[in-house]
């Protein structure tokens, strides 16, 4: 067990380092192209930092035949992402970042909230069905993700301009590919190691996926969040978390597409229900934080973040007690 935990730690470090390097490449790409900031932050950066979830979820399902680990990974990553956003908000409470955040992220988070409801309904519905081997729930998720892409594209800044960069475009592409390969393989081995930890502990794939795999694959988001808050780029800091969560839901639909034996929703363990409810609760509170007016009182400002942190710790305690 000690060896497995050491492997998990080393692989997690590799995931963080490679994700940071890829994020730097995306930032350089932003400087050398005319793509708008919303498109870069909401789609490219979110997609890059969610690459570990993509690899680990597909490999957990197709190679390990363990869809519950994939569900635990995605749902656990999403709940942990909002948790670290709440912690970061309190740690940098003097900045009051939500008082200086635009409302462009609200639509994305509302769509994520709707997807939580779809997943919760699909766990207990006998009428959702599927088209071929792909569940109707996955199709709905794909449609909602496409709608979000259109909304972000419509809000793209048409006046964005190119800046000079110290890195040539060919070298930038080479670095991106190299670190992407490192990230793919490290993420793949993390899913295998996490599956072995789940078997060794007997706690359950859902909780192990949420804690070990979900946390490990959320480390890039946590690193980016801290860096962006320090740079006072509050919009991008929140947008990366919100965009990553929605991208993660798209990964569930993509995983369902790759799982040829049937829909992963039909064989998902209802033990994931608590995780869905926790994520839904966090998402609702985050929506409130995004739409509310500017708050001057520190206690009132901090209260929603404290609620999110309390909900997340409740999930940990409840899962350990049930395990």
UniProtKB/TrEMBL annotation:
The chain crosses the membrane at residues 6-26, 38-59, 79-97, 109-125, 131-148, 169-191, 237-260, 272-291, 298-317. It holds the Pfam family Na_Ca_ex. GO terms for molecular function: calcium channel activity; calcium, potassium:sodium antiporter activity. It is found in: Membrane. It is a multi-pass membrane protein. Gene3D superfamilies: NCX, central ion-binding region. It comes from the Bacteria. GO terms for biological process: intracellular calcium ion homeostasis. GO terms for cellular component: plasma membrane. InterPro entries: K/Na/Ca-exchanger, NaCa_Exmemb, NCX_ion-bd_dom_sf. Its main location: membrane. Coiled coil: none annotated. Residues 8-144, 173-319 form the Sodium/calcium exchanger membrane region domain. Keywords: Membrane, Transmembrane, Transmembrane helix. This is Sodium:proton exchanger. It comes from Turicibacter bilis. The lineage of its organism: Bacteria, Bacillati, Bacillota, Erysipelotrichia, Erysipelotrichales.
């Amino acid at each position: 067990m000690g060896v497995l935990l050491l492997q998990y730690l080393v692989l997690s470090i590799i995931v963080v380092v490679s994700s940071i390097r890829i994020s730097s490449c995306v930032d350089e790409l932003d400087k050398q192209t005319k793509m708008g900031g919303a498109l870069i932050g909401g789609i490219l950066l979110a997609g890059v930092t969610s690459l570990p979830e993509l690899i680990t979820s597909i490999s957990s399902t197709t190679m390990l035949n363990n869809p519950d680990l994939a569900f635990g990974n995605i749902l656990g990553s999403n709940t942990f992402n909002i948790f670290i956003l709440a912690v970061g908000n309190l740690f940098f409470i003097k900045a009051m970042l939500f008082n200086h955040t635009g409302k462009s992220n609200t639509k994305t988070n509302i769509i994520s909230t709707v997807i939580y409801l779809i997943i919760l309904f699909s766990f207990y519905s006998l009428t959702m069905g599927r088209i071929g081997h792909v569940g109707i729930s996955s199709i709905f998720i794909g449609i909602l993700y496409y709608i979000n892409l259109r909304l972000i594209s419509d809000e793209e800044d048409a006046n964005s301009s190119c800046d000079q960069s110290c890195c040539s475009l060919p070298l930038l592409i080479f670095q991106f590919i190299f670190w992407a390969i490192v990230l793919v393989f490290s993420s793949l081995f993390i899913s295998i190691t996490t599956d072995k930890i789940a078997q060794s502990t007997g706690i359950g794939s859902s909780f192990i996926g949420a804690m070990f795999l979900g946390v490990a694959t959320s480390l890039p988001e946590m690193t980016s969040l801290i860096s962006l808050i320090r740079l006072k780029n509050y919009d991008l800091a929140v947008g990366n978390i919100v965009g990553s969560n929605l991208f993660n839901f798209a990964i569930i639909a993509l995983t369902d597409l790759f799982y040829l034996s049937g829909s992963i929703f039909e064989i998902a363990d209802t033990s994931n229900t608590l995780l869905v409810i926790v994520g839904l609760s966090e998402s609702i509170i985050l929506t409130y934080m995004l739409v509310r007016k500017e708050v001057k009182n520190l206690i009132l400002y901090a209260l929603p973040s404290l609620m999110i942190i309390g909900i997340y710790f409740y999930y940990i305690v409840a899962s350990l007690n049930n395990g």
